[in-house]
């Protein structure tokens, strides 16, 4: 039995909690850290939309630190190295969707702090998800097993965020709805952080496949909305940012060898001059041989499902990639456990939901 704590009960965290309660008998939820005062004291089962389990959530980080647990599922909106260090030093492993994807290219001071905490607590930390995660950290390596040589790897992510209910991330963190000249890789602490984690993925692919990159560049083009759009509780005004095309390019001798590009919109207006891959993720390996694969997650390809369910499927995928890794993270030696060093993570519940 693994005793786990959910740190952050938003869209992704909730998918983890329901998966544990519904499908994973060998994981026991023994605590949850929440930020909203109105969630404090509420039973974790109730928060997840399930029967009460007799464990209340808490806003008190120290109360969580004092618990004995095997692993913390760390899914807050804004991730903090010092929080994770405290968890690791207290002897808890950490599995997160937020950061720590490619420690080799983290800021050295942060990496050293995390390693010292792992050492102190004999614990390990793993960052993954869908992207960053499986699609940038597992799939390119898996496909490269069929490559003789590689010239270039490109991962494109096309998504319209209008259907993404985490509007705090869309508008507060990602700055959609702000003036277009307010968007840059260094404009805010969050945009810089977000840019750094995608740059880290470019480094990850390059480092894992011997690209010997000199640098990873980050650029963004912000595009203004032509008209107003109501996005859940938020009004996106015409003239403010409704499109962000980010590009992170891993360069060697001035040539891009690895690129991650995001084609993100809110409100459904799609700039005509942007490339138009299918919605979802398109991974292209140019080389011998050249390969392309397209990834899309939906609630179902066979039964009717609401848009809300379809959108949630990406949160399920993000959550499960990390939740399915818990035993491997707990078994890993102290320090960083990455998508390159852990064994291939596979579904643990598998076909067990079949009637
Ligand atoms: N790797 C990937 O592929 C991937 C994909 C999607 C998301 N993510 C990451 O996963 C994390 C969770 O995403 P999400 O979609 O679940 O977000 P979300 O629905 O917006 O949930 C946000 C969570 O943050 C908490 N929160 C509220 N105020 C906060 C604050 N001041 N500081 C820190 N946390 C605060 C909320 O607390 P309560 O528990 O009180 O509600 C909630 O648990 C984010 O870091 C996101 O970037 C990664």
TrEMBL record:
Record GO terms (molecular function): oxidoreductase activity
Enzyme class of the recorded protein, top EC level: oxidoreductase
Keyword Oxidoreductase applies: yes
Domain 2,4-diaminopentanoate dehydrogenase C-terminal: start-end pairs: 141-347
UniProtKB keywords: Oxidoreductase
EC number(s) stated in the UniProt entry for this protein: 1.4.1.26
Xref: InterPro entries: DAP_DH_C, NAD(P)-bd_dom_sf
Superkingdom, taxonomy of origin: Bacteria
Annotated Pfam families: DAP_DH_C
Name the UniProt record assigns to this protein: 2,4-diaminopentanoate dehydrogenase
């Amino acid at each position: 039995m693994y005793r786990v704590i959910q740190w952050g009960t938003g869209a992704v965290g909730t998918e983890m909690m329901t998966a544990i309660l519904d499908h994973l008998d060998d994981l026991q939820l023994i605590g949850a850290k929440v930020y909203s005062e109105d969630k404090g004291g509420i039973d974790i089962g109730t928060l997840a939309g399930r029967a009460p389990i007799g464990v209340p959530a808490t806003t008190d980080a120290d109360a969580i630190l004092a618990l004995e647990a095997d692993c913390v599922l760390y899914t807050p909106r804004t991730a903090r190295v010092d929080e994770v260090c405290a968890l690791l030093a207290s002897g808890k492993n950490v599995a997160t969707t937020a950061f720590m994807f490619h420690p080799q290219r983290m800021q050295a001071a942060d990496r050293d702090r995390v390693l010292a905490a792992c050492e102190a607590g004999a614990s390990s930390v793993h960052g993954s998800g869908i992207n960053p995660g499986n699609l940038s950290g597992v799939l390119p390596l898996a496909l490269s097993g069929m490559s003789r040589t590689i010239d270039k790897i490109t991962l494109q992510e096309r998504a319209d965020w209008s259907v993404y209910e985490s509007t705090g991330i869309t508008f507060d963190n990602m700055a959609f709805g702000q003036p277009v000249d307010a968007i840059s890789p260094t404009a805010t602490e969050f945009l810089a952080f977000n840019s750094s984690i995608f740059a880290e993925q470019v480094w990850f692919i390059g480092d894992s496949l011997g690209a010997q990159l000199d640098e990873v560049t980050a650029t963004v083009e912000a595009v203004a909305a032509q008209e107003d759009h109501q996005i859940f509780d938020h009004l996106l005004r015409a003239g403010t940012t409704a499109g962000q095309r980010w590009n992170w390019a891993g360069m060697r001798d001035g040539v891009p060898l690895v690129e991650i590009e995001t084609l993100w919109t809110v409100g459904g207006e799609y700039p005509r001059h942007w490339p138009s891959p299918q919605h979802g993720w398109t991974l292209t390996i140019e080389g011998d041989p050249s390969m392309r694969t397209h990834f899309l997650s939906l609630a179902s390809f066979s039964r009717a499902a609401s848009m809300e369910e379809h959108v949630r499927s990406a949160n399920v995928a993000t959550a499960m990639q990390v939740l399915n890794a818990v035993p491997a993270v707990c078994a890993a030696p102290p320090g960083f456990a990455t998508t390159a060093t852990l064994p291939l993570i596979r579904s643990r519940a598998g076909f067990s939901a079949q009637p």
